[in-house]
Every structure is written in C-alpha cells, then in structure tokens.
Amino acid sequence: MINYLRLFIELCLFRQQAENIPRSESLLLVTGLLAVLSAAANAAPEEGFIRGLLLSGCQIILFSGMIWLALNFKRKSERWVQTLTGIFGATTVLQLLTLPLFGWQESLVSPDTGQLVVTLPLIIVAAIAIWSLTVMASILRQALEIRIGGAILLVILCQATVLFIISMLIGSPSP
After folding, report:
1. How confident is the model at residue 172 (pLDDT cuts 50, 70, 90)?
2. Per-residue model confidence as pLDDT tens digits over 115-161
3. Over the stretch 80-89, which tens digit does the pLDDT of each residue have?
4. Residue 109's beta-bridge partner residues?
C-alpha cells in the first residue's frame, strides 16, 4: 500500500510516468472509491457528506466515461484502467492536502458585503486545484499521446461538461 501511495505522490510531483501504474481493476476500484470519499469529505462543510457522496460519485462516473470516449477515439482504450487509476490516485492525494484548509476557511462570501473574501486557505486551495488540473493533464497527455495544451483543454472540457451535467441532474451546489 505504501508503494502505491509513493507512486501517486510521484505522479503528483511529475516524477513518474502513467505507464508505470499497475493495470489492475481492483486498484482502479479502490482509487475510484477513495477519490469519491475524499471529494465528499471536501464537500461536506458546504454540501453535507451524503450530498457530497452523490455529487462526487456522479462526477467520477461521468469523468470516467468521458476519458473512455477520448481513449477510444484515439484507439488507446487498453490504457483506460491505468489512466483512471493514476488520475484517481493522484487526485485523492491532492484532495487530502486540502482537507485541513476547509476547516480553516471561513465563508467564501462576506455576509456584510456579499463579495468574495480572498483568504490564505482559499489561495492555497486554488493553487492545489491548478496543480490537480496539471497532473490530470500530464497523465492524459501520456495516455493519449497528445500535446500538453490539448490535454489541458481536454481536462477543462471534461470537468466543465461533468459539472454541467451534474447541475442539470442533481442541481447546483448549495450557496
């Protein structure tokens, strides 16, 4: 288990290649479940844990389907398990980094002015979100054998599409 954790940390630090991720459906299931749980824990302060589980579960399923479509389009469907395992494992590591920050973070909108309040935890969470995007893009770049710009656009497109579909099916996140 420590070796897997080390592998996912190395992916986050761009020191490991996606091709070195074991092709294991059970590892994919574990990393997918951990990604759902860590996302739900991060959503819990605003959404509640149960709604967070529903939102993150839907996000994982939809994102997985979109990556499957992209890999099939490029005729690289055999890389699906490794690609998603890497993305889910790395995403979980990065989401765990943000957990302590959500307890420290006050309301994002000032009750007095109704404007966004920029705080240190918010800046750190935003930086980790950008880091997560680049890690996912790096893994997709390797799996799809495309340029990094295309991989970044693909991640943004997938995330935007997933959020749109979830908001249509489940509703917008709580204010």
Report:
1. low
2. 777 778 788 888 999 999 999 999 999 999 999 999 999 999 999 99
3. 999 999 999 9
4. 116
- Give me the count of residues in the chain: 175
Q: Is residue 175 packed enough to be buried (19+ CB in 10 Å), middle (13-18) or exposed (0-12)?
A: exposed
Task: Using CB atoms within 10 Å of the CB of residue 89, give its burial: 0 to 12 exposed, 13 to 18 middle, 19+ buried.
Answer: buried
Q: Could you give the residue ranges of the DSSP H alpha helices within 16-147?
A: 25-47, 49-73, 80-104, 120-144
**Distance, CA of 141 to CA of 135 (rounded, Å):** 10
Enter the DSSP assignment of 48: -
Cβ(119)–Cβ(105) under 8 Å?
yes
Torsion of CA 101, 105, 109, 112, to 10 degrees: -170
